[in-house]
Specification:
single chain, mainly alpha, Herpes Virus-1, 3 domains, 58% helix, zinc ion binding, ubiquitin-protein transferase activity, PEX12, peroxisome
Length: 309
């Protein structure tokens, strides 16, 4: 997608989504009817806002979600095993060599866990504020990133499309002139010119239609329409994996947790088919990396909550 956006920014002055809706980017002080090409600096800033910023935000959201899961375990049990390398933050792992730096890393992680939700809410509020102001004509920028880039959105005019077609024909003509100057290549040059012109026209509309088709199929297979159309009888659950000879003994009552020998609370199940209290099995798998019944190697990702209705 980054390559497509870069091509669109260079040729049309807008991202793929913007040009799909007949929009492009231009300088705030540019009042001409014909769109001018973006400078290399404006293209780099636009790509950073379109690709880099969402990527960084998704990574920060993922890190915060992992830390939130770790905090949930602390609330249930009161501690988290030190060997939990899956949920330890990268900052803590980097500072294991020094106690002072380790404390500093823990403080940084704590500040991030506490402050990131407020920062994320403020970021969303700023974007919403720009969009409301843009809707009422109070600002030419519909997002803070356009404000930082010094660009505004405008509609592509008929002259813009004509100028793009003229440049495309000129580029193809210059490339084919080199070929046609060789002897015996005039016929091939004419064929290539025809094919290139037709191919560019097809690709120009094939890429948006292909992306729309992909998004439609993605929605269809994730929606209830597809599930109801292909609904099959629910198969019986598979038999649990036999317990290991040295594994934790199973209680006679199925509602008792094998680890704490108490009635299960906030139940969770491993992929091996055995149910436990969520805090008990979370900390066990974090520390030992295996099922306590079968001794099969497992990770936290193999743990599933059980919801009773």
């Amino acid at each position: 997608m980054a390559i497509i956006d870069y091509h669109r920014l260079c040729r049309w002055g807008g991202s793929f989504t913007e040009t799909f809706y007949g929009l492009c980017r231009s300088g705030v002080k540019d009042s001409s009817s014909t769109t001018t090409s973006l400078s290399p600096s404006q293209i780099r800033k636009s790509l950073a806002a379109l690709i880099l910023v969402p990527l960084v935000k998704s990574k920060l959201d993922e890190i915060h979600e992992r830390l939130a899961q770790r905090r949930t375990s602390e609330r249930f049990v009161g501690f988290v095993p030190e060997s939990d390398s899956e949920t330890q933050s990268p900052s803590t792992n980097l500072f294991n060599s020094s106690s002072n730096l380790e404390k500093l890393g823990k403080i940084a992680v704590k500040v991030f866990k506490t402050g990131y939700p407020y920062t994320n809410a403020a970021y969303s509020a700023i974007i919403l504020g720009f969009q409301i102001a843009y809707m009422y004509g109070k600002t030419p920028y519909y997002s803070p990133w356009l404000y930082l880039c010094g660009l505004k959105l405008k509609r592509l005019s008929v002259s813009d499309y004509q100028e793009y077609d003229r440049k495309a024909r000129q580029t193809r003509g210059q490339a084919l002139d080199v070929i046609s100057n060789s002897r015996g290549m005039q016929f091939v040059a004419r064929v290539l010119q025809f094919v290139a012109g037709e191919l560019v026209g097809v690709i120009q509309y094939a890429i948006p239609m292909g992306i729309l088709l992909f998004k439609f199929l993605e929605w269809w297979y994730a929606s209830d329409h597809h599930k109801s159309a292909n609904m099959l009888p629910i198969p019986p659950p598979p038999d649990p994996i036999p317990p290991h000879i040295d594994g934790t003994k199973l209680p006679k009552d199925a509602h008792i947790c094998p680890l704490c020998s108490k009635p299960r609370t906030n139940s969770a199940m491993l992929s091996t088919g055995y149910a436990f209290c969520y805090p008990c099995i979370f900390n066990y798998v974090s520390e030992y990396g295996k099922c306590p019944i079968t001794f099969i190697p497992l990770r936290i990702d193999n743990l599933r909550k059980i919801y009773h209705t």
